[in-house]
Backbone:
């Protein structure tokens, strides 16, 4: 049993691993209990067991294993870290649990697996279970299958991936073990429940008996859709929702789920693709051409067998399709035609989308073959064409189908109509837009009047289907002329139609039977997917169509039930009536008179044709009144306008009457329901009067009103044709002018440009100049909407006319079309119209492209030409290509049918002759322009091969390919390219060129898309492999593209796709995804309101590259120009850039005489910030290169376009250097006048100048440097500070120029570097110049080294970055350089450092070779002989410098070369740094420069004045009043006003004399309002500077070192007290954090920072209300994050943790529980260690209640509560203690206390002493003893109790009275008794309780602010001078250390009474002089 008891003592985790089973059993039981107790899933307890869980489940002892499984289950369920164990535990369960005989074990094992799935680890579990299926043990296989089945049953098919399970099913059915087969059957049934018939094809080859059994089981299954019963953690709330719904009996969710679930698994997806091309018979292509039909049949049968495979692998099927197409089209044997059709069907079904590229070739052939009568042929062809339809879109084959519709053969017409009907059933309202519906309806309407009844019926069916799909509103406009009978027939057909999608995608499977298709296509999931995709994707091609899908789509979907029925006339009656009124019958004149007389006064009608004009006028007035009062519904518009047209009608001679008449027409059109019939009555008359001088305006008004009523497109067409059918030129020109305005007012949508073009051409040819001008103006307006393609129609005009047109277009360029102001009101009231409005641009845009008749060129593409293009001889191939180019050029616009050309051209894209490849690319570019949007049907077979060319090794070929792809994409939109797997296949190829070009292209295109096809996800795995490509450029491009992929796919999908990567890759990719997530641009906003901007952003997008309006609308979103557009994400930038880049040259040529007045720099609000963000977020290239590549130049050009005048930009980027000089001259001229603009574009200007550094032309370089000198002078005057971004993209390139061979240039560059220090800190310049010393150019090395020397000389050692040591080591390396100049420069630099820094240099530079060292020593010796030269030189330089303002700061900075000065300088430059919002401070600084320069006298005398004061101090009697007030007396004499005083003080801060500096700083901190201005950053730097200074060992070498330290010490106290308390606390915390982090930082430094913090803690009770606690707690939180408690405890010193606790403790005490409300700035405070800490403290303090303030008083009060008299005594005592606590009155206080004690010997001062520190108590006791001795005349004070008089000044007797101990102890020798006393206290503290010190309340009441602020006054200086007499460094350090340990300033004793005596006398004298 001894053994037993041994393990009982072990901790749980060790028991679990014990070799004794009992121990393990006990361990598992205990673990189970522990797991059940832990409530927090993130508790660290869980992590202890991470490695043990696998042992729990794989225990070798069965009994123990059971317990282990139970514990493991609880662990997995509750621990948040459990997921990490998935793989090992599940594999353990599979191998060691599933083979156990105990059922309980297996159950628990299955439960564990399911639990892992629940915690989102489904994939890993499934992987292990599938591995288990390969195990030899059938038990394990059965258990794995059972687990998978349960998982599927509970979690559903969305979580459990079915494809891998279905793959192994057939193998399981073949197992020898019955148990395995039975289990396989069960899982097959379960799978069937989820995916229904999709399971049949994969199981078609299993044993027929098994299949039959399965069929029987399947039939029994319920038909309702299954639902998951268990959910992942992330979906649990969904589960709750579902339960609620079920309890409410609602099945809403069910319906939705249904739609989601059913098409989710597509049988096709579950199949393995089969490769069939290689399996074709070798002689297939010969046999298929054979003369004997039997041979042809054999060949086809071989193919038929192959294509029966339900899923085929993608490949190049072009030849096979071509052969089959030939059989279908040309073969005389109809049996073979049917067979070939079947083969095509098989290919289309097996390839799905991948067959789409061949669809265009085959469709016309199949349709024409419908002339065959044989039913089996017809059926085979039907099946083929239906299968092919599913692989493409209606849009792509529409041209071919429409072409066949005009065939004479009735069977072809009938079958085509039936095919259209079937196709429509697959469409939805959004995939069948008006643009597509229009031509189909037109063709079908011809068919419903056909003589053959079957053709008519088929057409009715097709129209009925269309009606059902898009609703009546959309179709009615096309059915305007159909009579009622036929209309009813169409409606009747529409009711019978059953759509594939119902009104909801996804009912495909069951509905499909109504369509004669083979069983295999039954899974029309594909079509379903495709169409639903289309809903979200705006139709490709013109981007204009985007609004169509958005506006039209949803409104129709939302109300499928109300197309045109009476139900929807309520709000929409305007439109409802209008649709009817379009066909309003023309009324006879009698009817009109009757209707009019009903609403008009009788006199009015009688007088209409009176011969007296006055009567006619009166009649018109009455008429007008009547119209004004009429109600819309009652107004008979047609009757009224007929009355107006009655004789004299429009021939009215009196202009007044005519004006009234026209006005009334306008009124009727506005107020009534005005139809086109009414319009036709009046329009002729209006056009006739439009040219009339008096009535023209009224006519125009009336026309506009009619246009508003009847839509502008129709009105405009009528008006223009009427105008040009008459001869009057005035009417013609005015009509055109009216139209120009109308287009601007109504927008362009729906206008039939074709009709206008011919009329405009007529007008351009007119003899009357007014008509020509009006026509050109109209063209200008049209250009706004149509874009540059408009010019094509006028290319054959005379050159003079063409130049006028061009001029007009040029005027319009850059403008965006105005927002339509009319024609909107109606649209908003009517839903239909919105649809129309959305779709109409579609027509417009198509029209624009289809204006010119397109030529059919297929007949010119002969087989000879095709064979020429494929010839072996390259010259003949070239001839062929030339011919093609000629054909396309000649035709200009072509029809999409181009015969065999695509295949021929495709072959040439991989021609071995690169010239031919380029020629082919040019032809393809031409082709895209010529064919327009119809080119999209060739994307798959020609577009994708162009992308392959992007992988070419030759740069120019790639560039040509990219241009071609862009030309195509412009016509087709991106959808076609992204659909299918083609693009991802390209990306898969491991060609670095292809990858980088393709990714670059995608990164440019994706941000501009509003949505993308789902196939984009297929590219993601390849994108990830590109992220880790060997080629850096590929990686870079992949990173750039990442955010844009994420923008469309979302982070979740992208992260999920990393699942298949290796763990190392996965981590890297996920990190990149996180980064990209932050930079992910928003999707471009859809143009929501058609009103605000009709097409600015969308319409012209089609003509992107050249169309200015689109350009602007896009670029404005990049660099925010107009405010409203700021909302748009900068995602579009890349596109805008490329477009603009291309555009620039064309503009310049057109516009030489551009207006050059106006500013050259445009101030873009936040432009610079945005650019920096873009660069930071890697949206644009970082400005970093060895030589500038084109993309950098393009990028800069684009960025400049929004903020630099166009003409200047053209000069700046001109290829000729003289233009650069011109640009620089202009920039110099505008420098002063456009300061704001220059600063706003500074980053761009500097970048442009870096490009100039790479020019070879010296004159440009000189000019650029000249400009830079002026620029930096301006910047320093403007107090500008360079940003990091500007510096890093400019300085490195400037430094390169310092190595120029020309002396002049080097000088200039050095001058610029010098000036740069005024706008960019020297310490930051240092690393850039240091980098320059590594150059290969020796001149550059030498110059950089010299510059480094200058920097050190001017700014001290602080500039040396990262540390002086490292910097000097690097500089010292160059002493051994082979170039003499470099050696000298390096030596000189180190000598400079030596002059500043002394012998320490040798330490810093490390080991040098003997030779180098001797050179250095020699040089140092030589330099020592002439040290006085430096200061003199500077004085000499002054006059010349003073003239040149730019150098003023050099003068300031070159004070005496003392390190101190440079430090203070730095402190000063910090305090003026703009990061603090200290405008005040900056202004001061400016004045200071003035003072120091202009009045040189002040500059010179200042130090002497202060120096003088210092000397005086030695004569005690002559001491001036040393109390430094906020402004000392001498200043008052010199400066009467405060501002100048402050300026003066600040100027002193920069003084070379250290005392002056410190005094001035102290004075600054006297003035509270000023002191509070200092920001955290400034204070941090200041404190850093001051503390470093105090710790600097070199100070002791100065003769007045001690005094300096004392002064600094006091200054620190001042800073702590007077600064903004939040800022200083924050600064100290950051400083402490930095100092603890920095390894180089000395522990002393941290200690002093902590002392400052303690001081702040003491001040807290007074300042707590003025502190921003939230910010302080955030800082503490960050501190605790960087230094968790564990890390702090590891520190050598315990002070940091105690300091932090003290601070928090004090805050808690002061604020109480409220402190927890101040954690607002911490992001996830639940995880914050700080919150937990505060909560603990609060709990602790609840136990010890008691308020914080004035504890002494309170405690006193609690005792003497009853007697109020005692209260007074108490107050009196408190007063005395206050005095003792203050610096000035401490003596007086002690004396009073002594008197008081004498008087009331029983007075109890214990309560007051009890709460104070030990030191204070002993101080008081000793003080009282001293006084007693003095009073009783016991002679001199004994040494042991002596208190040095110095204590009055610095050593306020409180624990942390002064910041630095250095100045406190003044080197007095301290008696041993004091140390003993201290030691006692320390021991007591440590021994008893560590926190005791924290709990001791600070003596706040004793620390009240001194009445007179003490500063480093003369008295202090005297003390320190005296103390220096007896100072030794050793003691100093000794006491320093000691005081650090005891947070106290130490008690100082003196060694000789004589000395003290002497001191006392002098002090008394000083005191008396003070009084």
Residues:
């Amino acid at each position: 049993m001894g053994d037993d008891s041994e393990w009982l003592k072990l901790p749980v985790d060790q028991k679990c691993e014990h070799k004794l089973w009992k121990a393990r059993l006990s361990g598992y039981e205990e673990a189970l209990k522990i797991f059940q107790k832990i409530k927090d899933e993130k508790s660290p307890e869980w992590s202890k067991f991470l490695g043990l869980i696998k042992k729990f489940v794989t225990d070798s002892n069965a009994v123990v294993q059971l317990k282990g499984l139970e514990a493991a289950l609880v662990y997995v369920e509750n621990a948040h870290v459990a997921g990490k164990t998935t793989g090992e535990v599940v594999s353990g369960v599979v191998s060691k649990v599933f083979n156990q005989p105990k059922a309980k074990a297996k159950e628990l094992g299955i439960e564990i697996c399911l639990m892992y799935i629940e915690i989102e680890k489904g994939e890993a579990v499934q992987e292990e279970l599938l591995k288990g299926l390969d195990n030899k043990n059938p038990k394990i296989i059965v258990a794995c299958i059972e687990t998978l089945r349960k998982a599927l049953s509970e979690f559903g098919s969305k979580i459990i991936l079915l494809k891998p399970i279905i793959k192994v099913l057939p193998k399981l059915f073949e197992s020898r073990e019955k148990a395995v087969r039975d289990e396989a059957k069960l899982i097959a049934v379960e799978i069937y429940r989820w995916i229904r018939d999709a399971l049949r094809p994969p199981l078609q080859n299993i044993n027929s008996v098994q299949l039959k059994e399965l069929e029987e089981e399947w039939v029994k299954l319920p038909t309702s859709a299954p639902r998951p019963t268990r959910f992942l953690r992330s979906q649990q709330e969904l589960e709750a929702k579902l339960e609620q719904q079920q309890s409410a009996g609602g099945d809403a969710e069910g319906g939705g789920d249904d739609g989601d679930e059913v098409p989710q698994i597509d049988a096709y997806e579950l199949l393995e693709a089969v490769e069939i091309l290689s399996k074709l018979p070798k002689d297939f292509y010969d046999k298929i051409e054979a003369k004997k039909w039997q041979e042809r049949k054999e060949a086809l049968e071989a193919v038929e067998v192959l294509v029966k495979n339900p899923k085929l692998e993608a490949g190049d099927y072009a030849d096979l399709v071509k052969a089959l197409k030939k059989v279908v089209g040309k073969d005389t044997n109809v049996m073979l035609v049917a067979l070939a059709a079947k083969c095509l069907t098989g290919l289309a079904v097996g390839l799905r989308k991948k067959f789409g590229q061949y669809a265009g070739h085959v469709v016309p052939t199949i349709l024409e073959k419908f002339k065959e009568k044989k039913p089996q042929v017809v059926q085979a062809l039907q099946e083929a064409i239906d299968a092919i339809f599913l692989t493409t879109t209606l849009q792509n084959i529409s041209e071919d189908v429409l072409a066949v519709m005009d065939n004479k053969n009735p069977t072809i017409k009938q079958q085509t109509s039936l095919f259209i009907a079937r196709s429509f059933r697959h469409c939805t309202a959004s995939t069948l837009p008006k643009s597509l519906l229009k031509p189909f309806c037109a063709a079908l309407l011809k068919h419903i009047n056909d003589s053959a009844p079957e053709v008519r019926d088929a057409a009715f069916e097709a129209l009925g289907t269309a009606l059902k799909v898009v609703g009546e509103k959309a179709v009615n406009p096309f059915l305007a002329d159909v009579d009622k009978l036929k209309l009813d027939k169409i409606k009747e057909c529409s009711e019978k139609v059953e759509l594939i999608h119902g009104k909801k995608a996804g009912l495909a499977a069951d509905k499909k039977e109504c369509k004669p298709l083979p069983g295999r296509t039954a899974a029309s999931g594909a079509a379903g997917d495709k169409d639903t995709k289309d809903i979200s994707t705006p139709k490709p091609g013109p981007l204009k169509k985007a609004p169509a899908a958005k506006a039209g789509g949803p409104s129709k979907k939302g109300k499928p039930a109300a197309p045109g029925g009476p139900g929807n006339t309520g709000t929409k009656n305007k439109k409802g009536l209008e649709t009817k009124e379009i066909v309003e019958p023309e009324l006879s004149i009698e009817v009109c008179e009757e209707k009019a007389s009903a609403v008009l006064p009788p006199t009015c009608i009688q007088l209409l044709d009176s011969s007296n004009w006055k009567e006619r006028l009166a009649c018109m007035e009455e008429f007008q009144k009547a119209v004004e009062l009429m109600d819309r519904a009652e107004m008979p518009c047609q009757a009224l306008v007929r009355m107006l047209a009655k004789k004299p009608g429009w021939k009215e001679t009196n202009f007044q009457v005519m004006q009234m008449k026209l006005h009334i027409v306008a009124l009727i059109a506005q107020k009534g329901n005005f139809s086109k019939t009414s319009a036709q009555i009046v329009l002729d008359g209006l056009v006739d009067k439009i040219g009339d001088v008096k009535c023209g305006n009224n006519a125009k008004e009336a026309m506009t009103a009619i246009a508003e009523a009847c839509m502008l497109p129709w009105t405009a067409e009528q008006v223009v044709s009427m105008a040009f059918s008459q001869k009057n030129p005035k009417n013609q020109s005015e009509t055109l002018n009216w139209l120009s305005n109308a287009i601007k007012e109504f927008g362009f949508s729906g206008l039939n440009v074709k009709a206008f073009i011919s009329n405009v051409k007529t007008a351009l040819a007119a003899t009357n100049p007014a008509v020509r001008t009006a026509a050109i103006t109209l063209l200008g307006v049209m250009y706004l909407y149509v874009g540059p393609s408009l010019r094509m129609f006028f290319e054959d005009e005379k050159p003079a006319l063409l130049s006028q047109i061009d001029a007009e277009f040029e005027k319009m360029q850059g403008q965006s079309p105005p927002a339509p102001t009319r024609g909107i009101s109606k649209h908003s009231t009517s839903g239909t119209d919105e649809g129309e409005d959305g779709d109409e641009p579609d027509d417009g845009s198509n029209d624009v492209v289809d204006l010119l008749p397109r030529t059919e060129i297929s007949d010119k593409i002969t087989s000879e030409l095709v064979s020429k293009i494929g010839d072996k001889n390259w010259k003949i191939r070239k001839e062929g290509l030339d011919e093609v180019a000629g054909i396309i050029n000649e035709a200009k616009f072509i029809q999409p049918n181009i015969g065999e050309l695509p295949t021929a051209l495709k072959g040439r894209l991989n021609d071995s002759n690169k010239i031919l490849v380029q020629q082919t690319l040019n032809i393809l570019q031409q082709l895209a322009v010529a064919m327009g949007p119809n080119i999209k049907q060739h994307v798959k077979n020609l577009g994708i091969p162009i992308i392959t060319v992007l992988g070419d090794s030759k740069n120019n070929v790639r560039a040509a390919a990219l241009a071609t792809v862009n030309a195509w994409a412009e016509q087709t939109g991106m959808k076609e390219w992204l659909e299918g797997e083609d693009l991802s296949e390209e990306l898969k190829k491991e060609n670095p060129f292809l990858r980088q070009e393709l990714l670059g292209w995608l990164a440019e295109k994706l941000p501009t898309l509003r949505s993308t096809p789902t196939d984009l996800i297929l590219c993601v795995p390849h994108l990830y492999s590109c992220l880790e490509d060997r080629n850096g450029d590929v990686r870079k491009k992949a990173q750039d593209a990442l955010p844009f992929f994420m923008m469309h796919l979302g982070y979740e999908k992208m992260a999920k796709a990393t699942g298949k990567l290796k763990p190392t890759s996965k981590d890297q990719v996920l990190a990149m995804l996180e980064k990209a997530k932050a930079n992910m641009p928003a999707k471009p906003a859809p143009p929501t309101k058609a009103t605000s901007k009709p097409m600015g952003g969308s319409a012209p997008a089609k003509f992107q590259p050249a169309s200015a309006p689109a350009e602007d609308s896009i670029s404005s979103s990049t660099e925010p120009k107009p405010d409203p557009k700021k909302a748009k994400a900068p995602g579009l930038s890349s596109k805008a850039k490329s477009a603009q880049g291309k555009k620039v040259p064309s503009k310049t040529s057109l516009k030489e005489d551009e207006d050059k007045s106006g500013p050259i720099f445009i101030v873009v609000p936040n432009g610079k910030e945005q650019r920096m963000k873009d660069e930071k977020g890697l949206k644009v290239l970082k400005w970093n290169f060895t030589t500038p590549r084109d993309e950098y130049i393009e990028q800069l050009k684009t960025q400049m376009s929004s903020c630099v005048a166009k003409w200047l930009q053209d000069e700046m980027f001109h290829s000729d250097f003289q233009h650069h000089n011109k640009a620089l001259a202009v920039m110099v001229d505008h420098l002063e006048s456009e300061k704001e603009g220059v600063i706003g574009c500074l980053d761009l200007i500097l970048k442009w100048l870096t490009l100039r550094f790479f020019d070879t032309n010296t004159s440009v370089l000189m000019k650029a440097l000249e400009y830079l000198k002026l620029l930096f002078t301006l910047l320093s005057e403007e107090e500008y500070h360079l940003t990091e971004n500007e510096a890093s993209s400019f300085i490195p390139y400037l430094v390169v120029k310092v190595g120029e061979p020309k002396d002049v240039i080097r000088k200039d560059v050095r001058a610029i570097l010098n000036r740069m220090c005024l706008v960019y800190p020297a310490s930051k310049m240092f690393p850039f110049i240091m980098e320059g010393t590594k150059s290969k150019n020796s001149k550059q090395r030498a110059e950089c080294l010299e510059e480094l020397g200058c920097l050190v000389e001017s700014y001290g050692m602080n500039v040396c970055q990262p540390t002086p040591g490292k910097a000097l080591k690097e500089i010292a390396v160059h002493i051994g350089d082979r170039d003499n100049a470099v050696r000298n420069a390096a030596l000189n630099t180190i000598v400079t450092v030596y002059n500043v820094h002394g012998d320490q240099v040798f330490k810093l530079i490390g080991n040098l070779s003997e030779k180098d060292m001797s050179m250095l020593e020699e040089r140092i010796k030589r330099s020592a002989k002439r040290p006085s030269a430096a200061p003199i030189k500077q004085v000499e330089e002054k006059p010349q410098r003073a003239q040149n303002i730019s150098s003023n700061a050099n003068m300031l900075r070159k004070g005496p070369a003392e390190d101190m000065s440079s430090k203070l300088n730095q402190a000063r430059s910090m305090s003026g740094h703009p990061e603090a919002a200290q405008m005040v401070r900056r202004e001061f600084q400016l004045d200071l420069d003035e003072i120091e320069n202009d009045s040189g006298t002040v500059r010179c005398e200042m130090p002497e004045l202060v120096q003088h004061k210092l000397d005086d101090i030695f004569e005690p009697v002559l001491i001036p009043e040393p109390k430094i007030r906020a402004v000392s007396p001498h200043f008052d004499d010199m400066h009467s006003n405060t501002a100048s005083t402050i300026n003066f003080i600040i100027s002193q801060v920069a003084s070379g004399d250290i005392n002056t500096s410190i005094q001035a700083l102290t004075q600054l901190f006297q003035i509270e309002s000023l002191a509070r201005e200092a920001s955290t950053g400034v204070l941090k730097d200041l404190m850093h500077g001051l503390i470093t200074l105090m710790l600097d060992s070199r100070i002791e070498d100065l003769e007045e070192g001690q005094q300096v330290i004392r002064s600094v010490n006091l200054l620190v106290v001042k800073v702590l007290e007077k600064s903004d308390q939040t800022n200083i606390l924050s600064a100290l915390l950051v400083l402490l954090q930095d100092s603890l982090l920095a390894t180089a930082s000395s522990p002393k430094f941290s200690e002093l920072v902590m002392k400052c913090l303690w001081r702040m803690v003491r001040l807290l009770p007074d300042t707590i209300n003025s502190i921003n606690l939230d910010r302080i707690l955030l800082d503490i939180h960050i501190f605790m994050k960087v230094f968790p408690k564990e890390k702090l405890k590891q520190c050598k010193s315990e002070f940091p943790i105690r300091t932090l606790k003290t601070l928090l403790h004090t805050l808690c005490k002061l604020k109480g529980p409220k402190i927890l409300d101040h954690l607002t700035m911490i992001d996830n405070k639940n995880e914050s260690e700080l919150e937990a800490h505060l909560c603990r403290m609060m709990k602790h303090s609840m136990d010890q209640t008691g308020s914080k303030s004035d504890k002494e008083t309170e405690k006193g009060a609690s005792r003497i509560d009853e007697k109020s008299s005692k209260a007074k005594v108490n107050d009196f005592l408190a007063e005395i203690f206050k005095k003792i606590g203050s610096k000035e009155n401490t003596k007086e206080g002690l004396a009073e206390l002594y008197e008081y004690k004498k008087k009331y010997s029983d007075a109890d001062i214990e309560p007051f002493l009890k709460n104070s520190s030990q030191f204070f108590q002993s101080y008081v006791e000793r003080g009282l003893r001293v006084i007693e001795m003095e009073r009783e005349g016991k002679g001199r004070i004994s040494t042991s109790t002596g208190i040095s008089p110095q204590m009055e000044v610095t050593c306020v007797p409180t624990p942390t009275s002064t910041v630095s101990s250095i100045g406190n102890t003044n080197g007095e020798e301290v008696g041993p008794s004091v140390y003993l006393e201290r030691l006692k206290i320390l021991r007591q503290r440590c021994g008893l309780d560590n926190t005791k010190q924290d709990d001791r309340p600070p003596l706040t009441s004793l620390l009240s602010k001194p009445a007179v602020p003490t500063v480093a006054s003369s008295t202090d200086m005297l003390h320190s001078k005296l103390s220096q007499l007896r100072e030794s460094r050793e003691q100093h350090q000794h006491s320093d250390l000691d005081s650090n340990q005891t947070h106290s300033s130490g008690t100082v004793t003196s060694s000789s009474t004589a000395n003290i005596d002497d001191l006392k006398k002098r002090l008394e004298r000083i005191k008396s002089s003070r009084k």
